[in-house]
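ok so I'm stuck.
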Amino acid sequence: MKKTIGAISALLVVMLLTAACGSGGPNAGREAGPGNADDGSGAGEPIEITFFSNNPDRTGGQGKAEQLLIEQYMSENPNIRIKSETLSPDPQFQDKLKIYNVSNTLPDVTMMWGGARYLSPYVKNDSLVEFSREDFAGQGFIDAAFDSFTMNGKLYGIPKNTDFLVLYVNKKILADNGLAPPKTESDLFRIAEKLNGTGIVPMALDGRDAWPLGLLFDAVVSRQTGGFETYHKAVDRTGSFNDPNVVASAQKLQEMVKAGLFGEGFLNLDYGAARNLFGQGKAAMYLMGQWEMGMAKDANFPQEVRDNMAAVPYPASDDGKSPASDLLAWFGGGYSVASKSKHAKEAKDFAIWLFKKENWAKTVWENGITFPAQAYDEFVTGEEAQLQQDLTAILKNADNISGANSQDRFSASTSKSYLDAITELLALKVTPEHFAQSIDAIAAKSYKELHS
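replied:
not stuck anymore, here's the structure
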């Protein structure tokens, strides 16, 4: 595992050092605007491709990138019509995707997550088109990014982003209260103590969807243990979650809750509510991935808040065992193509076109949306927004990259139990000792399912 982590880390750092130098059925939902330009390839018979996305906002963020590229593709291919369906939050999107899968009506191109937890039901149902790495030769992909979409040696999806966990902060709120962005875990408790009773939530956290709690758990475990080996080994069954360091991590998480770090009722906050809490200046910090880079350009938030947004790494451990350069980073999201589609070939062609480096990578970087899973150094202008620069520095300075986060390594049937256990821990319903025993049993069941 250390060798794998080291390889991923090296690839990311090299890439970034270089950069530093320079909702309804498949036919429902919003329809992409028609294109009418011909690229000289000939019109052909009209073909409609359905596109299923978890990004309902088509004017900002990754929804904007998708829409821009969909419209460009239709303009270049006048016989192709791409019809978009969107649904969020992610649990609802995933539930509908499962329904499409079991009914063999998967949309032609769909957002998909990598890892056994998500991919295995679709692979078992023979629902996805197989790609080859050669389909993307010369497009600057980080080689390790394909691993999460590979099962049994076959590639079933295209990774779109380099994802990593960070802490967004409002510098003005902190400074107005005599505080600075946190550098160590003890700083989090000082911020909570100072802001409690002021009406400002110390850290906005999406607790309702559970998966952000899983990322928080991984981050805390890494600080307690000095890296990511503990949870990797526990999932691989070369180690165990029933470990004193995991118990100590669980205890620290409960101490964070008791200190009011996440405010009242955070387990009822969904993704949008937590994001809005921070974006409207009602929270000093927000725990989320780098894909929220576009918040600084979100016109729904006050300009004063946007001007004071910054990103910092998850704070280092107080004992120096785990520095801030230990970064929880992975390649989780991307797109897959339905093998049972009557337009599987055309859908696959579109998906491959989407990831020419001048398409996805260029679009998301130049619009300040997210970090692609491809090299983007040729698109760096030096005029990037401060938040974009902050996030670049965090990734560039990472010495130890986690690879897959823990929840994505569980089987499809056990991942919910695992996240439910973390939710119960943060709801203060179980002891740290019972929690560690519980998730270890879930990990054992998961391993057996994945390797039977």
